[in-house]
Amino acid sequence: MQGIDLSAYALGLPPEEKLSYIQKLQSVGLIQCPFKTQPQFWTKKKEDFKSIVKQTDRNDLIFFLIYKPNSTKSQSATEKPIECVKSLDSYKKYIAGYLRDTSAMKLPNGKIVVKRLVTHSMAFSKPPLNCWVVLHSHGGVACGHCDCIGGLGGTCSHVGVLLWGVVNISEETCTSTIQRWHNKSATKHPVSIAFTFYTMKYELPTTISQLKNSQKTKRRDDDYELCTKETFVEILRKLDLEKNAPVCLHLLIDPFSDKYVPVQVRTPLPKRLTSLFDKTLEYLGVHSITQEQALALEIVTKQQTHCKQWNHGREGRVTASKIYQVTRTSLTAPSKSLVQQIVYPMDCSFTSEATDWGIKHEHHALNTLKAHMKERNNHSAFEIENAGLHVSTSHGYIAASPDGIFKCPCHGSTVIEIKCPFSHRNQMLLDAAKEDFGFCLSVGENGVQQQMFACELKKAYFCVYTTKDFACIEVPYDETLVTEQIVPKAKLYVLQVALPELLTRYWTVVRYEKKPLLKKVERMFKMVV
């Protein structure tokens, strides 16, 4: 143990980790830490590097990271394998260029030491990490190490990046390099060309001078007999009987041109399967729902949560209560719970003490709003109606269910949105705003704007109700926010997330189904190849 020359990194390790590191070096026959070995002992030439690591392939990498026993002390069959799947997945980092500055060294006992620098996974500004692995001469990985926090085990993701680099070099084919299969076009020595001149073998029947003096025989059109229609049809009939179809019959000449009509013109071909997706695009357009259908749906869904058609109409549509989550979720890996709430709203109904309190006191808030409007006396005759599900006729994938519609003959219709905060139900609104910074809500928030867009209205009353206080704020319509933020993001979500789930159950069944570890390893193999 005393004969091993340790680097500054090894000397700085805690006693237990230092002892484990020394035992790792002794197990592979190293008398000096690879981090301290002088540069002249390492080779960086690709040809030399490939020749000494050619026995190592991806099967050795899989065995080392997945099936190797978790403990080096016990090699029994009952020992649990290490199963470092995350390190096996590090081929993505290798492809992204995390690996650099490769060098290799062959030991007297035949083993090969490979050392490289690997960039940090998240901290790109920090100095790169130092990694080394020891390979057997006959193939296989003996051990590895990295100077990161989890590198003492020898199977961290940085060691995985290094092993993928070794496998890529050892399995490189001749066609992977530039023009290895082409012959050299240039010759080293000039080639002498022997020019041989031949004499004419036969005499021409006519001399050139005679050809120049000859004159063409002129013929008049009167010498030809005009072809009648019956003769022309007879000629075409005989040509039609020929085995090889003449080109002239391809013209529009009845009755011989009928059999030359293309098959796809005579019999319409079936529609492309991709037209199914084109239909989904049409569904998202202006023909998704008519004005009469939208009005009928709004009338039959005025009871909202107590109406089955209300849940049916929300299936696959982005509602105002979900637009905040839709604009912030990932389109490549969306929230599974959000997908279920949008596509299967009836199966994802949520109730709690807070929601029950809000629904129970919603009519109290509407009555307070009526009294508030009568006190102000700004409207000659107004009424407040219950609202059902409003679906946009121009963008059928957008819907909203306001808490009510305020109708006035002098000011028109207005959307009503009511909030009954359960956590501040017995407080004044100013006191709640001072105590809870998250209590305040932007008047231009996406949900209220989407409600105005779906209802085709230009104004909304945003009301907050507690048992001790009430406030009503008028919110104007923000067309820029709707056209540049809400509509484009909602459309992308429906196209890339909601429609695949509606058609194939992609996100809830196919994407997130559990697969055995071996299938995951095979899938990684195919992606690398």
TrEMBL record:
InterPro entries: PDDEXK-like_dom_sf (IPR011604), Restrct_endonuc-II-like (IPR011335), YqaJ_viral_recombinase (IPR019080). Residues 309-429 form the YqaJ viral recombinase domain. GO terms for biological process: DNA repair. Pfam families: YqaJ. It comes from the Eukaryota. This is YqaJ viral recombinase domain-containing protein. It comes from Daphnia galeata.
